[in-house]
Amino acid sequence: MVWASVGSPGGETIQQTQAQVIVDLLEFAMDPQEAVSAPRFAHSWMGQPDFRYPNFGVLQTPIDSGLDQKIYDELTAMGHKLSVPKTGYGYTGSNAVIRYNRESGWYLGGADPRRSLYAIGY
Hints:
The longest helix has 13 residues, at 14-26. Helix content is 23%, strand content 15%. The strands form two sheets. A three-stranded antiparallel β-sheet has the order 1-4-5. A two-stranded parallel sheet has the order 2-3. The chain is elongated, with a radius of gyration of 16 Å. By secondary structure, the protein is of the alpha+beta class.
């Protein structure tokens, strides 16, 4: 039996978003709504200079606000150029989750607040 279905709309952050939400579900035992609402980061190749756009800009790592300041400081000290919004979410993808709870027999849903999504069941 399927335990969870995790989905993300098209875009460059799909794999990163999926992996972070799955880790939140499995390793941190978050429910679907907690997992999709949790702060995330994204690594975007869009800012990476390449042969077509050699001066395209500086690569930055979008990361959501709401984490301990120590995390941002440590990442910056390692050389990461972070893009952190003053509040809320940055450009870190969006996700939706449906998970089956074996004990109750209920399906639990999570809708990402980064978009206009809703988890509705009947």
